[in-house]
Amino acid sequence: MKVVISIGERMINVKRIIIIQHCQSEHHINNMSGGWTDTPLTDLGRKQADLIGLSLLKKINHEEYVLYSSDLLRAKQTAEIIGMQLSLKVIENSDLREINTGIAAGKTKDWARENRNPRKGSEFDLDYQEYQDGETWRQFYSRVSSCMERIYAEESKDLIIVTHGGTLGYIIAWWMNFQPEMLRKSYFSASVGSISILNQNGFQQNALSVLNDTSHLYD
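^ Phosphoglycerate kinase, sequence as received from the core. Prediction below:
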């Protein structure tokens, strides 16, 4: 049952959100950088996606969900395989991409290390732009949060979102109502092919009920 609550002046439907980190991609094994580098899944990655779909098929009623994905190949291909298992169409959204790595997109990890902008200190800096033409972490969080607000307000069904590691962490931070400055000391980390789940508990608190579940990959 959907419940409607008021947060400030905004009315939202309370939903369950299943977040999937895309499966193994070519950039994990060929020394390419991540971010907006657009690489497809490996054969192992496709098998991992198939296992995710089979696991969800046993655990959820697919008719209650809509399936969203980043438009980058590694996420989109993961979502397409899961969508085939669940009979769900993939809705692509470019705002679900990983952080924009600017000029490092399409480059090797070695090139990216040698051409990143210098840091001012050792602590995490929200306003640090790692690469020319890329995003700062603050801009990245703003993009992800705005995207989730739109999706959450528009959809009446529960959500499955296939995305990237950094984006996954920031979707969780958005759900937990983090202000940007709170990200300086906090981070949610998950693994390739993992499942995380957001919902509301009986006290209408936003909850992270599952983080980084990879048990389905070993069944």
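The first helix runs from residue 43 to 59.
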